[in-house]
UniProtKB/TrEMBL annotation:
Primary location: membrane
Any Pfam family: DoxX_2
Residues annotated as transmembrane: 70-89, 101-120
Protein name as annotated: DoxX family protein
Cellular compartments annotated: Membrane
Topological category with respect to the lipid bilayer: Multi-pass membrane protein
Keywords associated with the record: Membrane, Transmembrane, Transmembrane helix
Length: 127
């Protein structure tokens, strides 16, 4: 179970890092033209960049606290925050009639929920 949680956290961390770096450094106009990025057209550039920075922080929060044994409770806390982020992403893509992206967000939500459940419960770092 511990290995599965580490794999899930690593995968989700990579997804968060890729999305965060993209939102932080790619111009909003290019993001808006990309598949699934149309929502950025209605958002301010600052909002998109702030979301990108939060995703980069989430990437670190899903792995580093557990790996370094520094405040490891931040791993499941970050996973819960990712669940909330994915709920918002699913709503956004659902409103834009992009069901494929909403399903992808549901997959990421499920991974994050698994990490939160596992790290708060049976495979807690403090247990």
């Amino acid at each position: 179970m511990n290995l599965a949680l580490w794999i899930a956290a690593g995968l989700l961390s990579a997804v968060a890092l890729a999305g965060g770096v993209t939102k932080s450094f790619v111009p909003k106009e290019r993001l808006a033209a990309a598949p699934g990025g149309g929502w950025t057209g209605a958002a301010s550039a600052g909002s998109v960049k702030a979301l990108g920075v939060l995703e980069v922080l989430a990437s670190a929060g899903l792995v580093l606290p557990g790996a370094l044994d520094i405040a490891p409770v931040l791993v499941p806390v970050t996973a819960v925050c990712w669940v909330l982020l994915m709920v918002g992403a699913m709503i956004t893509h659902g409103r834009r009639d992009e069901p494929g992206f909403a399903v992808l967000n549901l997959f990421y939500l499920a991974l994050a929920a698994f990490i939160a459940w596992g790290r708060f419960g049976p495979e807690s770092f403090t247990g």
